[in-house]
Design brief:
The protein is mostly helical. Helices cover 78% and strands 0% of the residues. Among the domains are: 62 residues, Tetratricopeptide repeat domain (Serine Threonine Protein Phosphatase 5, Tetratricopeptide repeat, Alpha Horseshoe); 89 residues, Serine Threonine Protein Phosphatase 5, Tetratricopeptide repeat.
């Protein structure tokens, strides 16, 4: 029997017997698991009014509120579950995630530390603490927790990736490179790792390696705007205008809502004295002014000055 068939069956059971709480509990969980959070909420609220000391109901209520993006009520539900069952590690962990989303980072870390009291090898708790420290700009703390995550779970690509970013920020380039390469060893299609390696190559002046890594970035994420920008910057620096034009055209084909890319393409077209394409792409840039790094007013003045001098 499929889950949807079972949901329908349980719904009929409850219609005929509203006091069949075992069926109602299963019904609520199935609704939640099958992405019917609003319907699940009605059932869990009904059950919570009857079974006021049942921590599992409040725990599931917390999950339901999270799915409905009501973080305040999710927080209350998880705290109630913990009050009823103080040794419930999952409730502490989920509460920590909610508090992280609410930017209550220190309270979130306290929750993750509580999880680690129950299980000192819980890599998810270490990782989530690392995120809290990172979001506060406390890089050394974040580095410690991401490293502990890796010690427990060496294949955690996200811990390697964030650790690599921190090491790069702290100018420990070789260690950062090692982390990004480890990410690609685990997940060869992780585009951001290629991008970060390309950034390192660019800063080191390694043109060929930077281009190779940017091509891989765009192979796995053809809509990476920043990858196109740095790619065109490298090509322009090396006076490869024809190739820069090809990359810029590919960029606007794949990222049609990005004003900056139209502006960059327009500048390259101007170098080729292609006034029609220059004006066309400048107008496209203005159409997408919400994604422009420069002011639309300055862009329009530049275009007006260009057309007056033709």
């Amino acid at each position: 029997m499929s889950n949807l068939d079972r949901i329908e069956e349980l719904q009929n059971i409850i219609k005929n017997d509203k006091t069949n709480f075992q069926a109602r509990r299963e019904f609520a969980v199935l609704l939640l698991d099958n992405n019917f959070p609003q319907e699940a909420l009605q059932q869990f609220l009904y059950l919570s009014n009857i079974f006021k000391d049942d921590s599992a109901i409040f725990y599931n209520l917390g999950i339901t509120y999270e799915k409905l993006k009501d973080l305040n009520k999710a927080e209350q539900a998880y705290k109630k579950a913990i009050e009823l069952s103080p040794n419930e590690a999952d409730a502490y962990y989920n509460l920590g995630l909610v508090l992280t989303d609410k930017r209550k980072f220190n309270e979130a870390i306290d929750c993750f530390e509580k999880v680690l009291e129950f299980d000192n090898e819980d890599s998810n708790a270490y990782f989530s603490s690392g995120i809290c420290f990172l979001k506060q700009g406390k890089l050394d703390g974040a580095k410690y927790y991401f490293q502990r995550t890796i010690d427990i779970n060496p294949d955690d690509i996200y811990a390697h990736f964030y650790l690599g970013n921190i090491l790069k920020e702290q100018n420990n380039i070789e260690a950062a490179r090692k982390e990004f390469l480890k990410v690609l060893e685990i997940s060869p299609d992780y585009s951001w790792a290629y991008f970060n390696l390309a950034s390192i190559n660019f800063e080191e002046g390694d043109f060929n390696s930077a281009v190779d890594n940017l091509e891989n970035t765009l192979k796995y994420n053809p809509k990476d705007v920043e990858a196109y920008k740095i790619y065109i910057k490298i090509l322009t620096k090396h006076e490869d205008s024809k190739r820069a034009l090809d990359v810029a055209q590919r960029a606007v084909e794949n990222c049609q809502e990005e004003g900056d890319l139209y502006y960059i393409l327009a500048q390259i077209q101007k170098k080729f004295n292609n006034s029609y394409e220059y004006v066309k792409n400048m107008n496209e840039a203005l159409k997408h002014s919400n994604t422009l790094s420069c002011s639309p007013k300055a862009l329009k003045k530049e275009m007006d000055d260009f057309t007056k001098n033709r």
